[in-house]
Amino acid sequence: MLEMDGVPTLDDVMGNFPSEERLLKGFVAVHECYQDIPCNPCVESCPVHAISMEKLTSPPVIDFDKCTGCGNCVASCPGLAIFLLSLKNGDAQVTIPYEMINVPEKGEKVDGLDRYGKKVCDAQVVRVVKLPSLDKTSKTTLVTLEIPRELLPVVRSFRRR
Ligand code: SF4
Ligand code: SF4
């Protein structure tokens, strides 16, 4: 379960992780939303109804086979609690919602950080897109990083150099 500091443990993460077979097909959404909070923009944002909830205060459940990796739920989540992961073509990539104004550029080298903000690797920005956020009047930046494969469950943030 969640540590007292609110950071999910690796057991939490791996208990809700797509199979390697699914990751090899391309981007798929994973959530790190484990608490019983009344919230559901992720459910509403999904065009293929891949996210469900038993009730409004239940944690979301993502159907990895239905998910197309579009990123709408990542941009819509007010808790910044959804990410996209991929192992397509053998490249380990994570897509992270980014709310700062100093948006990185494609090709930029950055520091890959774990959930505590500790540097765990060198990473490279391979994609930057903007998608409509929760209120539909603004957009959320989604930054995709290429990272070492073994750190796919670990890297969830980055720092520009
Ligand atoms: S990435 Fe797109 S298809 Fe996948 S769960 Fe999120 S909104 Fe649905
Ligand atoms: S939108 Fe984000 S915070 Fe809200 S239920 Fe979905 S994953 Fe959790």
Automatic annotation (TrEMBL):
What GO molecular functions are on record for this protein? iron-sulfur cluster binding; metal ion binding
| InterPro entries according to UniProt | 4Fe4S_Fe-S-bd, 4Fe4S_Fe_S_CS
Residues forming the 4Fe-4S ferredoxin-type domain are 26-56, 58-87
The protein's UniProt keywords, in alphabetical order, are: Iron, Iron-sulfur, Metal-binding
Pfam families from the entry? Fer4_7 (PF12838)
* Name of the protein this chain belongs to: Dye-linked L-proline dehydrogenase gamma2 subunit
Q: Which organism is it from?
A: Coprothermobacter proteolyticus (strain ATCC 35245 / DSM 5265 / OCM 4 / BT)
